[in-house]
Amino acid sequence: MKLDYRRYDLRLKHTFTISRSSRDTVPVIIVNFEKDGIVAYGEASPNVRYGESIETVEKFLDSIELERLGNPSSLEKVNEYFDSIAPGNPSAKCAVDIAMHDWICKKLRVPLYRFFGIIKHKAPISSFTIGMDTPDRIVQKVKEATNYPILKIKVGFPGDEEIIKAARSVTGKPLRVDANEGWKSRGEALDKIRWLATQNVELVEQPMPAEQIEDARWLRAKAKLPIIADEAMAYHDVSELSTAYDGINVKLQKSGGLFKARKLIHEAHELKMKVMLGCMIETSVGIAAAAHLSALVDWNDLDGNVLVSNDPFDGIKNEDGNLILSDDTGLGVKAASQS
Ligand code: MG
User: Fold this and answer.
1) Averaged over 5-16, what is the pLDDT?
2) Per the CATH hierarchy, to which homologous superfamily does domain 115-335 belong?
3) How many angstroms separate the alpha carbon of residue 99 from the centre of ligand 1?
4) From the CA of 250, how far away is ligand 1's center (Å)?
């Protein structure tokens, strides 16, 4: 039994700007778990917003006692063990949780979605994300994304209207927006959402700061568009969020992996909330893992691997927003030949 990991720097096709940061490369950690001659993959894409870094992921992975993983056929026990090592560390836990799922499914010779009891994989089309930019470059990016039927545009700064107008000057397709906590007052958020509702925008993700659940509750009562919690997921449980948001954005990297993400999806649906399955900038390992759950949700936003130019894996295709999973066992992901 062996658990190895390595750092890998993902290069973005475009500088990716959201309301709080701008990046050209994203470091991730690729995990290899090997037992009985079966090699399984996992991935961590740590998020500084939640106090994680490459170093915190490495520290967590170093602290795993392999013999404690024991027989990885009980994913609940494995996750309990990860939580006993340290609180938090969701992307590090996600990496090993994904690898455990991949290993078990390879051992059982089933694709991951079948392991989850999903018989026919038919998932909602994924959106394609466009980061903040100047109006001219937004026009160019929207044109480049012509094959994608749904776009998600990052907003949350004073020039929002110009960005959306620029996108609307070249496309009539549905838009979703993500403010990443960028609107700071109730009035600002409501004005923005009222205007966005006139622009064929489908939903608004995390309009205001994550901690401000009272403001989200106020906004939801007045806003005409669905309001989705993303960053707020780190501060409130799903039942609290159901009083203030119409839906949640579930990300494997933020929820701690497949086991916990699947529980969140079911919990939200029981509370009559909508669910978006989202991602970070990730390789095809992390995106494929999420895509195996994508038939369970209302909206998919699983484009992290198509935003990068040096994905070291393949096995999940994004054809015009359609997520095409391999029928190979486990995640169905292999090292790309060019890497
Ligand atoms: Mg978001």
Assistant:
1) 94
2) Enolase-like C-terminal domain (3.20.20.120)
3) 25
4) 10
